[in-house]
Write a structure and sequence with these properties.
heteropentamer, A mainly alpha (668), B mainly alpha (485), C mainly alpha (100), D mainly alpha (539), E mainly alpha (167), B: 485 residues, 2 strands, globular, C: 100 residues, mainly alpha, Helix Hairpins
């Protein structure tokens, strides 16, 4: 089965090629969607096969590399088109193909009747292929193909409604911000490659080889530089501070896209990448600290913005940013397993949420369309009371919301709590631990608040939609609800494969399967980290329990506030806004980050470009060129006028010449 | 006292001159007996005569005969230059007839005068006595004064003749004074004797009289080759003279001037090379620069080519500054190819311009490229050759000239030369811009190309292209020619 | 020949005067006369040198210069006449149709 | 066939002769014949490719006497190695495409146009295959002439200015190079070199001062052609005014002359000086990358934008070449090919919309995707190729350049250059967005026809190449690798000598005779010295 | 005695030369020029070259100047009232002055070649100047002599072409 790993990205590629080239001719949506879905599903099956085979192997044999063909070989540099299958990538391909299949299926229903249906599926397949390359690549360059490939697909899919200017802008923004990250990624790659090569004559970008040689890496120093650069790449892809602003805008794309790319898979690439290179990152305590801090900051920062958004998808987008922050927090505190675990659970519940919101929007859109209203189908202020019209959507949505809020028993609880615990208990960041935990917990509180705010505004209360339209609201078709149900189910139970040891012990020593599964991957990192981890007294189990309880309480507080504000006392939000107008405006406008970036980067760049062009290129550079020409021409004019036409002037010139020449030679 | 007995002399060195002189006189006679308006056959006869002379000259290749008590010599150097003169004259004769008919001044005396000019130039090239050189120069000049003013009903032609005459005579004064001082300093006018006398001097450059004589002679020749600051007559005279004569003047006398200059400087005064190359360095730079830069703003194409011809003199001087085999061979090669390309260009100008020398502006070339593609292509080749673009003869010529300078260590001179060359491209391109890239402002008929002109054009095109692609054989001749002096 | 320098200086002075004449006079014929003056100065130099050196090369050169002067005079004056026919003037101020 | 190189080079000239006999009114025949000629040339050039032995030696050598007069001996000495091989193929590959692109774009003076195209092809091929410096110079200059006419006759509004600027700008540089060439020859003559053959000059040991001057002269000429900041201003003008085929060839092949010149001549001939100036040139290259990107960003004319993007791309090439290691130079070479393909394609794309709308202002467009989906797809692929998206050709070259440069002394330059990656995305996507996305609100755009079969046929080979070179660059890299290794060794060995010796050491002192051997003739004989140079090479 | 005579002749020659360039009337200039020519002829005599003196008078003073005067008369040139371009005169004089300075300095700084020829003053007087000249002319300088014939032919043809009323 391992040998067939190349099939995994191949299937979506085939789907992409078929739909891309012939989709326009096929016209039949069922066929197009069928092909697209089938292809990714086949990948899923292969992935399952690989997973099963891997489970059957002893942990130390769970690494397999497959070289497809040599790609770039030049000088010392060597990069093959090759895949790496290990527990980590196995998790990722399962998530990607699994969630991917569901979202493909969902899309058949959701995108029904859209112009360019085939295009959508082609892009979606292409995305899956890129994502799979990203997670399967056995060297940084193959990863980078996927890395940029998903960026491309994200660009294409955000710009799917290309006739909307906002969509185009958002697409471009996404790509460019990703590129900023890629810049970091490349520099990181170069640094690592160069350091290994010039110091140890190991010229490689292959993960396995780097891993084998990673003991040569120093702590800090060049590793800090390299890892920080990589982390810049991760912030770009995973929408962390400071490169997060593209993700909310990316909601211009169709909702399945938001679910697949901007929630479940692509945006987690940064997390995955850090996981993949954990043995490098861990060697730089500074970078780990930065990652943790940025993760925590992003978590709280995005969460605050999420509280004030009215667009249903934007709320989810900021939520995603915030949750990604959690993942980075996990990575930053060395809890790689927890980070990856959260990645997975997040994929379930966030995909479900997005798809649910898509279902809502779909329905709203349909209803509004019927009455020719131009109201915004995504604005939560237009919704309300939808639970009766769309029960399945409501239930799955609620389950996922509970999961994300960290209510015990649901997947999100296990992963998030693990992260918060590790943030508190990690042995690396000294006094910062409390802060990290506190910020994380607060963010969790905000998460619960805005998620339930969303649920309450959308599904509870009276229906604020146009009365005429109300009758048109209905539950979505099966093709949409099946994925919702599957994902809702996973969101609910997905967490049980990674039960914290504490809880597992309580239930008779159920092991943390997930941790065991990933152990071979992160063992080395843990080994390295032991070098500088300070061996303080381990917090007691009781303490752990109480922290867990605290986080639950925090989540409940968030829910409570939301309930108070949006169900019980609906005047409160208005009052709150009126009391703190500046704050609200700031939060509503995303802390003016976009404006800030425009002010700091975009506008100066444009202005500088204008200056360079009109001011420098045309006037100075070309001015010099033309100036030389003009000076020569000016001399031409002068010389011309010396040529006066008078014989005596000519004779004078001759005589002058003679006198000068003679004079020089005689008197010299 | 015994009778003066005219010594037995070897006439071989001056056979071509004698042949041409006799031919010229025959033509003069024929002219008298032929009715006006039917003078074309004189052109044909002169062309055939020139061709025959060329054979005669060619037969002398490889010989080395001094004659007339050292007044003339037959050597490869002279032979090569004689070929250039004959070529220039031949082409000029071919393009003259049509033009002269059109300008209604097809007097039969034209052809004998051209032939006499050639005789003068030949004497300059083969003369080894300052007297011979001077008289050759005068034969050439006096003929040219007449030729420049040949279209006597045309004010511009009159003016050109008069200007050329006055300034030419003025420069002759300096030349002669230089010869006088040289004579005084060395006691002889024989080039080879001067060489041996100067060679025996302990410090020739300290001999101010010799130095001054050399400098004054150089100014005299600088006038003939139109080197700055003795160049100022050139544009006016070239513009005013009948176009075929302009073509002739730009190719022939310039080459003759170089022939004499080379002979005097390299044969008689090689010991003073440091001094004269220093002066020529300055002159070369000045000439190139003034010529090229002033040409940039010319609308009248004859005038433009006149300035360009000044610049070309500058390039050739670069080769002379070097004074080594490469550079001087370069001059020879360049003069030959210059004759082809410049006369070719003037031939096109003749075809484009109208009676009374109207349509002589660059703008009048507008649209030529697609109305008369062959002419335009020919013109393009001439212009690119003048600009020194490969693969034309002009490029190889310049290459050798600048190579000579580089070889001698005059790198900056070569750099200035190439920069000038680059600037010059502008005005050559300008003509092409009008030919190909602008539409004609008004519709008018183009002059028909007569057979002789067509022949001249074919020869010129071939002469501008072939030496650019396979220059070896000509360069080989040039090398041999300069080896002996 | 003890007085060579005397002759040379006189000829230099005459040459300079001729040059000044060429540069300052406007009448083409007078300019031509000034050129003749220059040529004569040269002739004097030649003859003086010839006498000093004790051979006749210089003197014979002078004979040729005289011939040349005559030939130039003929052609030059013819040119002036032709010019005069067209322009009704012989002043070099009027010889400036072509310039720049 | 032993003279297949000559055949390839001069086939277009034969084509010109053929064209002369076709009446100027039968435009279709003229076009088809030209296309056929270029196709045949391409096919013939493929036999070069198939016969090419993957090693570092020059192959298909033809060496005949040509000029021998005075101190000079010029020979008709041609041959290719891995470096020039691909540029030759690129040229022959682009030409049919360029010809095909003119079928509707050029309606007037077709015959002359085709003749120009064919002459240009010969010039370009000749320059790539010349192993005689003089011969190279001839072809180098000859190229200018047809290009000048193409811009000047068939160009846009400001064509004359652009054409003359192009011509004189290039001429200035190349003439200075000519002087340097002559000087070099005489230096060689003193050292016993007998003709202009390039390979001999590789073994010539020049003192530092000489090298510096000569290098500067060569570098200046090539820098103009590349074009490097700040000598680039002729390029936007030339590109904007040139007809589509002209722009395509200019971008795809002519600009490569400059970078090729560095790789083939300036660097191996004067390695010490090249090392000395590497930081300076890298600085200019990096400035070019950033500067051109910023300027491109605010352009209003699509073609000008693409032109500036060329400046940026070639900045990358220069950076890679001056890394002096195999990766960097390979990357540079690949990037040359890539740029040829992708920027050529971009100019074709601009040509397509220009033909339809007779405007190139970005603001005149918008929302074309709706009307022209095929066009949109192709445009997008090319855009991403130009941005350097992994999987397309642009990436491979750019990546190798950056990694090569990062390995070398140019680390910090590389960091800055890498940020050019961001900017290239900004301007390319921005223009793509403004042209293709948004509302189709300009009524003139609403009836635009999508690409026709011919236009698609033009683009398909390019698209194929974009992906082929992006996904499987091995055949390209493999064939050029030995030659590049040789070059890198050549540069490196000498540079070590330069470090060992004080700079002032005059030529001819015994100090200069240290072990380096003849870098141009053979790889360094002593492995130990090699190791001392770069311990990482012995992997 | 000879020195005094030389001085007087020189004075006359120079004054008449100056008159040539200062007289407003061309005729006066021409007459002054003839005066200078006579002075030169005197010099030639003093330099033991009587034949040269004779030729000088005949060719220059006789032929050439007659031609010039004739032309002046023919063209009936008006006397220019004023010289407008005074700066021209100034510049011209300066240049002429420097020419003079240059020349004189060079003459002072340098010296001519040592006498090399066989002819002394006595010898010339014994054999006769004309004969010696003739001998030289028709032996050593035969070619230049012949060239002058061509030159004169050219001059004749040229003048005819340029100045004859109908051709």
């Amino acid at each position: 089965m391992f040998d067939n790993v190349w099939l995994i990205p191949l299937f979506p590629l085939i789907g992409f090629l078929i739909n891309g080239f012939f989709g326009k001719k096929i016209k039949n949506e069922a066929v197009i969607g069928g092909i697209g879905t089938l292809m990714i599903f086949m990948s899923f099956i292969v992935s399952c096969g690989i997973l099963l085979q891997m489970i059957g192997l002893p942990p130390e044999q769970r690494v397999f590399e497959k070289v497809l063909f040599p790609w770039i070989h030049s000088g010392n540099f060597k990069a093959d088109m090759a895949f790496l299958v290990d527990p980590l990538s196995a998790v990722m391909i399962m998530v990607v193909t699994g969630v991917g299949s569901l979202i493909h299926l969902y899309s058949i229903g959701y995108m029904h009747g859209e112009e360019g249906f085939y295009r959508f599926f082609a892009y979606l397949n292409l995305f899956c292929m890129s994502m799979l390359l990203l997670v399967l690549g056995n060297n940084m360059l193959v990863m980078f193909i996927g890395w940029e490939g998903v960026g491309l697909c994200s660009y294409l899919l955000i710009g799917y409604y290309f006739h909307k200017k906002s969509a185009g802008d958002a697409a471009k923004k996404a790509f460019v911000m990703n590129r900023v990250g890629d810049f970091g990624f490349l520099i990181g790659l170069f640094t690592l490659y160069w350091w290994f090569g010039s110091n140890h004559n190991i010229w490689t970008i292959n993960f396995t080889e780097i891993k084998a040689a990673s003991h040569l890496l120093p702590y800090g120093g060049v590793v800090t530089v390299a890892t920080l650069c990589f982390f810049v790449g991760a912030t770009g892809k995973s929408a962390q501070i400071p490169l997060f602003t593209w993700l909310p805008d990316a909601m211009e794309g169709p909702t399945p896209v938001s679910a697949l790319i901007h929630a479940a898979t692509m945006v987690t690439a940064g997390v995955y990448m850090i996981g993949r290179m954990s043995f490098v990152f861990i060697k730089s305590p500074e970078t780990m600290m930065v990652i943790a801090v940025v993760g925590a900051a992003t978590a709280i920062f995005a969460a605050t913005i999420g509280t004030a958004q009215n667009d249903i998808k934007r709320v989810l987008a900021y939520s995603t940013v915030s949750q990604l922050g959690f993942m980075f927090l996990a990575m930053g505190v060395g809890a790689f397993t927890a980070g990856i675990f959260h990645l997975m659970t997040h994929a379930f519940f966030k995909a479900c949420l997005f798809l649910g919101s898509g279902s809502v929007i779909h329905s709203m859109h349909h209803a509004l369309h019927k009455i020719h209203s131009h109201d915004d189908a995504q604005d939560m202020r237009n919704m309300g009371g939808l639970r009766s019209a769309m029960p399945i959507t409501f239930i799955t949505f609620l389950v996922s919301t509970i999961a994300i809020s960290g209510i015990p028993g649901f997947s999100g609880f296990f992963s998030k709590d693990e992260i918060l615990w590790q943030a508190f208990a990690n042995p690396y960041h000294g006094g910062l631990n409390i802060v990290l935990w506190g910020v994380g917990a607060l963010a969790a509180c905000f998460t619960a608040f805005y998620m339930f705010r969303l649920v309450f505004m959308t599904f509870f209360g009276e229906c604020r939609i146009n009365a005429k339209a109300k009758s048109y609201l209905h539950e979505s078709p099966l093709v949409i609800t099946i994925p919702l149900m599957v994902l809702g189910f996973l969101a609910a139970v997905g967490g049980y494969i990674g039960l914290p040891k504490l809880i597992g012990d309580m239930f008779g020593g159920i092991p943390n399967y997930f941790e065991h599964w990933l152990e071979p991957v992160f063992a080395l990192a843990n080994q390295y980290s032991a070098q500088y981890a300070h061996h303080g007294a381990h917090p007691s189990h009781a303490f752990e329990w109480s922290l867990m309880g605290l986080s639950v309480v925090i989540a409940l507080i968030g829910i409570g506030i939301a309930f108070t504000m949006y169900v019980q006392n609906k005047d409160l939000p208005g009052k709150f806004t009126a009391t703190f107008p500046a704050l609200h405006r700031a939060v509503y406008n995303k802390w003016y980050i976009d404006e800030l970036y425009d002010f700091i980067f975009v506008n100066p760049c444009k202005a500088f470009g204008q200056f360079l062009w009109k001011g420098f290129d045309v006037i100075v550079v070309d001015g010099v060129v033309n100036g030389v020409a003009n000076v020569v021409m000016g001399f031409s004019g002068i010389f011309r006028y010396i040529q006066s036409g008078y014989i005596y002037n000519y004779a004078f010139s001759m005589a002058l010449g003679v006198v000068a020449i003679l004079g020089y030679y005689i008197f010299k | 006292m015994d009778m003066i007995s005219i010594p037995v002399v070897n006439m071989t060195p001056i056979l071509p001159e004698i042949f041409l002189s006799v031919l010229a006189m025959v033509l003069l006679l024929l002219n008298v007996f032929s009715p006006s308006g039917k003078k074309s056959y004189l052109a044909y006869i002169s062309f055939i005569g020139i061709a025959a002379t060329a054979v005669l000259v060619g037969a002398g290749w490889g010989g080395h005969i001094e004659s007339f008590s050292g007044a003339v010599i037959l050597d490869n150097f002279a032979t090569f230059f004689k070929m250039i003169f004959l070529l220039a004259a031949g082409l000029t004769v071919l393009i003259s007839d049509q033009y002269m008919e059109r300008e209604e001044c097809n007097h039969g005396e034209l052809y004998p005068l051209i032939l006499f000019t050639v005789v003068g130039m030949m004497l300059m090239a083969s003369g080894t006595d300052l007297m011979t050189i001077f008289l050759g120069l005068e034969v050439m000049s006096v003929s040219l004064y007449v030729l420049a003013g040949f279209n006597r009903n045309n004010k511009k032609s009159n003016e050109a003749g008069l200007k050329y005459f006055l300034l030419g005579a003025f420069s002759t004064g300096f030349l002669l004074y230089g010869m006088a001082l040289t004579y005084g300093a060395t006691g002889t006018t024989r080039v080879y004797k001067i060489a041996s006398v100067v060679g025996q001097m302990t410090l020739p450059s300290a001999n101010i009289m010799l130095l001054a004589g050399m400098l004054l002679m150089m100014t005299g020749f600088a006038f003939k080759i139109a080197a700055a600051p003795f160049h100022m007559w050139t544009p006016d005279v070239y513009e005013g003279a009948p176009t075929p004569m302009t073509a002739f003047m730009s190719a022939g006398p310039k080459a003759a001037g170089f022939a004499a200059l080379l002979r005097i400087l390299l044969v008689a005064l090689p010991t003073l090379q440091i001094e004269w190359s220093q002066l020529l360095w300055v002159l070369a730079v000045l000439t190139m620069t003034v010529g090229n830069i002033t040409a940039l703003r010319q609308d009248n194409i004859k005038r433009m080519l006149a300035y360009s011809s000044i610049a070309h003199a500058g390039y050739a001087l670069v080769g002379l500054v070097a004074g080594n085999g490469t550079g001087t061979a370069g001059i020879l090669f360049y003069m030959l190819s210059y004759a082809f390309m410049n006369i070719g260009a003037f031939a096109i100008i003749i075809l484009v311009s109208k009676k009374g020398e109207t349509n002589g502006n660059v703008m009048d070339f507008a649209g030529l490229g697609f109305k008369r593609p062959l002419l335009a292509v020919a013109m393009t080749i001439f212009l690119f050759s003048l600009a020194g673009m490969p693969p034309t003869a002009g490029f190889i010529g310049k290459f050798y000239l600048f190579s000579g300078a580089v070889q001698k260590g005059y790198i900056w001179l070569a750099v200035i030369g190439v920069l000038n060359s680059a600037a010059s491209v502008y005005y050559y391109l300008r003509v092409m811009v009008y030919m190909y890239m602008k539409e004609p402002t008004e519709e008018f008929e183009w002059t028909q190309v007569t057979a002789p002109v067509a022949l001249a054009l074919i020869i010129s095109v071939a002469g501008s292209m072939i030496p650019g692609i396979v220059p070896s054989f000509i360069l080989e001749f040039a090398q041999q020619a300069v080896k002996l002096i | 020949m003890e007085n060579l320098n005397g002759y040379l200086v006189v000829s230099a002075i005459l040459f300079a005067i001729g040059t000044i004449g060429v540069l300052t006079r406007k009448n083409a014929i007078v300019i031509f006369m000034c050129i003749e003056l220059m040529l004569n100065a040269v002739n004097l130099t030649f003859v003086a040198f010839s006498r000093h050196l004790g051979h006749f090369d210089g003197q014979i050169f002078v004979l040729f210069i005289m011939t040349v002067a005559a030939a130039e005079a003929a052609v030059g004056l013819a040119l002036m006449i032709a010019f005069y026919k067209n322009k009704e003037s012989i002043s070099v101020d009027d010889v400036n149709m072509m310039k720049w | 066939m032993s003279n297949v190189l000559s055949l390839t080079t001069f086939l277009p000239i034969l084509g010109v002769l053929l064209l002369l006999f076709i009446p100027k009114d039968s435009k279709g025949v003229l076009r088809n014949v030209t296309l056929a000629v270029t196709l045949v040339t391409f096919l013939v050039s493929l036999t070069i490719l198939s016969g090419f032995q993957t090693n570092a030696e020059f192959q298909f050598i033809e060496n005949m006497p040509w000029i021998a007069a005075g101190p000079f001996v010029m020979r008709y000495n041609i041959g290719i190695d891995g470096i020039s091989l691909w540029l030759v193929i690129l040229t022959t590959f682009i030409m049919p495409i360029a010809v095909l692109s003119t079928y509707t774009a050029v309606e007037e003076k077709v015959k002359e146009y085709m003749i120009c195209l064919l002459l240009l092809e010969t010039g370009m091929l000749g320059a790539f295959i010349s192993l005689d410096l003089f011969l190279f110079y001839i072809f180098w200059e000859v190229m200018l002439i047809p290009m000048y006419f193409m811009i000047g006759i068939w160009g846009g509004k400001n064509k004359i200015y652009a054409a003359v600027k192009f011509f004189i700008y290039t001429m200035v540089g190349s003439l200075l190079m000519l002087v340097a060439l002559i000087f070099l020859y005489f230096k060689g003559l003193e050292a016993g070199i007998t003709d202009f053959g390039l390979l001999q000059f590789f073994s010539l040991k020049l003192d530092m001062a000489t090298q510096i001057w000569l290098f500067l002269a060569f570098a200046f000429a090539f820098a103009i052609k590349v074009p490097m900041f700040p000598l680039h201003t002729w390029l936007p003008d030339a590109h904007t005014e040139a007809p589509t085929a002209g722009s395509v060839i200019l971008a795809a092949v002519l600009l490569k002359m400059g970078t090729y010149g560095y790789v083939r001549f300036a660097i191996p001939l004067f390695p010490d000086a090249a090392h000395k100036f590497a930081p300076m040139i890298a600085t200019l290259a990096v400035i070019g990358i950033i500067y051109a990107a910023l300027v491109a960003m605010v352009q209003e004319d699509v073609k000008k934008l693409v032109a500036y993007s060329s400046v940026a791309h070639l900045g990358f090439v220069m950076l890679g070449v001056f890394a002096f290691n195999v990766e960097g130079i390979s990357g540079g070479m690949l990037q040359m090919l890539n740029h040829g393909v992708s920027t050529g394609a971009l100019f074709l794309i601009v040509g397509f919309i220009y033909e339809r709308r007779h405007t190139r202002l970005i603001t005149d467009f918008g929302g074309l995707s709706k009307q022209m989906p095929v066009f949109a797809t192709i445009f997008m692929i090319v855009t991403f190729s130009s941005i350097g998206l992994p999987g397309t050709n642009g990436f491979v070259g750019e990546f190798l350049i950056l990694i090569g440069a990062f390995e070398s002394q140019l680390r910090w330059w590389t960091v800055i250059a890498t940020s050019g990656v961001i900017l290239s995305a900004v301007y390319m996507l921005w223009v793509f967005q403004r042209v293709m996305f948004g509302e189709l609100d300009n009524p003139k755009n609403q009836k635009l026809a999508d690409l026709n079969v011919r236009e698609i046929a033009i683009m398909v080979p390019l698209i194929v190449m974009i992906f082929f070179m992006g996904l499987y660059p091995k055949p390209f890299i493999d064939r050029m690798d030995p030659a590049i290794r040789k070059l890198a060794a050549q540069v490196r060995v000498t540079s070590v000598n330069a470090q060992v010796l004080p700079v002032e050491t005059p030529a001819g002192t015994p100090a200069l005779e240290i072990p380096s051997g003849h870098p141009g003739m053979s790889t360094p004989s002593s492995p130990s010295s090699d190791k001392a140079v770069n311990p990482h090479e012995t992997k | 005695m000879e020195t005094l005579f030389f001085a007087i002749v020189s004075l006359v020659a120079i004054i008449s030369a100056i008159l040539v360039i200062t007289c407003k009337n061309p005729i006066n200039s021409a007459l002054s020029l003839i005066m200078t020519f006579f002075c030169l002829a005197t010099y030639y005599v003093m330099l033991d070259a009587p034949f040269m003196a004779a030729v000088q008078v005949m060719v220059y003073a006789g032929a050439i100047m007659v031609l010039i005067v004739f032309t002046i008369m023919l063209l009936n040139i008006r006397v220019n009232a004023t010289q407008k371009h005074s700066h021209r005169i100034l510049l011209g004089s300066i240049i002429g002055f420097f020419t003079l300075i240059n020349t004189i300095v060079l003459l002072v700084k340098s010296q001519a070649a040592k006498p090399v020829g066989p002819f002394t003053g006595d010898m010339i007087r014994n054999i006769g100047h004309s004969e010696l000249i003739g001998r030289e002319m028709f032996t050593t300088f035969l070619l230049p002599f012949e060239i002058t014939s061509i030159l004169l032919l050219v001059a004749i043809v040229g003048s005819v072409i340029l100045a004859k009323k109908n051709i």
